[in-house]
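A note from the maintainers: we've had questions about how concatenated examples are separated. There is no special marker in the raw files; a new sequence line simply starts the next protein. For clarity in this README we add a label.
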Amino acid sequence: DASATVHRYKAELFDTIAPGLHAVMAMDASIERYLAQYFPTLTSFRLPYLVAQRHVRAPLPEADRTGDIVMLGGDTARRREAERLFLAAPAPLKAEFIWSGLWGAARDACRAGARISLNVHADPELRYFDQFRTFEAWAAGTAVVSDSFEGWEDFGIVPGEHMVLAELEDLPQA
């Protein structure tokens, strides 16, 4: 699945050019750990992902929500499996899986209109805290449910309080 392996290609590219770099910006502790393990002499600076204030909004009133669950992301086999699981759930779940073509204000409005923003990692072997999706969903005033990943502790996230985490097969019940 070429879409799911895009991060692997990026990692291979980075591993190729890293020996010639003087310093890099790391988004989070997991990247800092990777750098320390594989490139111990490479200086790194932490620069976390931030959402501009103009994109932060209060949650919409429940009556103004237009959808229950939305998943925005590339079309991968793992995400199609999540879609299948939601469609097969015993209780009817209105989950919309949008694979592409939604950007900017339209994407922000879609997230804000949903009760839940669903995060499903494209690759089962590369599951990490997806700051972009999570922070943008929170900025839109939407709750987040994600398949389990490593690194949430580094951000002070408490599962069940800040977001719901579950294995892929358990997401429809989460």
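[label: protein 2]
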Amino acid sequence: TGDVTGTGEPVGGVCGRNNNSNAKIENCTNAGTVSGESYSGGVCGRNNGGTVKGSSNQNTGTVNGTGSNIGGVCGYNYNTGTVDSSNNNGKVNGSSYVGGVCGYNYNGTVQNCHNTDTGTVNGTSENIGGVCGYNYNNGASAKIDTCTNDATVSGQNYIGGVCGYNDRGMVQSS
């Protein structure tokens, strides 16, 4: 795919916003550079209750965001959204809430995902993770399950190899 640039939000290499429980992005690949402000992802910028999955679902392009919620696969996964069996091979750069797979997981699930050694994650502020920058459970369920990171992760505060900041969520088998 070609490069994708947005001055607003959300911005995604395949889809800007995947919205509601019937929405699915399956087995899609982005190889271009994705550039946006906030809510930017290599495959999907914002996943609201939908599903992003598939063994060939991946990002190989660079994702650059000037703001928050920046992810190699999905920038912002929320409202029981699922990111499953998706991989990131591209560099991810943002300010805060930056992750190799998902920037911010709010009451959603990120499972069976991998950030490879080429998926370097760089944040200029806080909540930076190799798989997920921020995992937040607000009464539903926020889960990171069976995910791995092989890349370098850097930032200022709340930096983790798998999850930068886990707030009442669950990180398991990762």
